[in-house]
Amino acid sequence: MARDFTRRRTPTIGPRVVRAWAKRLSPGASILDLGCGYGIPISQALLHDGFAVYGVDASPTLVSIFRENFPSAPVECSPVEDSLFFNRTFDAIVAWGLIFLLAPETQRILVGKAARALNRGGQFLFTAPKQACTWIDVMTRLPSVSLGHEAYQEELAAHGLELVGNDEDEGENYYYFAVKH
Asked: Among 22, 23, 90, 114, which one is least packed by beta carbons within 10 Å?
């Protein structure tokens, strides 16, 4: 399944919005990529732009490919809800194409973990549909759940994060941008 995912992932979808978001960060800022997969295109774009990227993914196959693609970038093979996030904090966290793959309660736990792992002023980006819904994800073929815009905004606020914007890309991925105060 992991190798199939690498063949089906469209590398042009995502980097434009992620790069625009990352312009809010200082040069060389530390970014945690949750559900980093094999690193293309999100980690790749951020590394190319000079950021210090750390990855976490649950797939041993995808982590192995990530290590081949980016040997100097730290990566951990672990479910994000179990990861210690390298026992450090970050200037930013990105979770592109991940949150909605998790059970609703795990999504809430992850938002709290992300908030605790961010430095003050840290940026958090994740993707999930604007509307509350369930479906089978076309990339992973896994059941998926979006809590919806209002529920995500409330969850972010409950953990000291403010929703500061949204965007949508050419693949119709809906983005949430939050900041830790």
From this structure: 23
**pTM of the complete model:** 0.94
Residue 5 has pLDDT above 60, yes or no: no
2-180 folds as Rossmann fold (3.40.50)
Rg (CA), the chain: 15
Helix (H, G, I), strand (E, B) or coil at 55: strand
DSSP 8-state class, residue 41: T
Q: Where are the domains of the chain?
A: 2-180
Give CA–CA dist 30/18, Å, rounded.
14
Pure H helices in the chain:
2-8, 15-22, 42-48, 60-69, 104-117, 149-158
pLDDT at 168: 95
Q: Which run of H or of E encompasses 168? A: strand 161-168
Residue 156, class by beta-carbon neighbours within 10 Å (0-12 exposed, 13-18 middle, 19+ buried)? Answer: buried
Lowest mean pLDDT among 5-9, 50-54, 103-107, 143-147: 5-9
| Contact present, 137 and 144 (Cβ < 8 Å) | yes
What are the CA-CA distances from residue 27 to residues 51, 85, 124 (Å)?
7, 21, 17
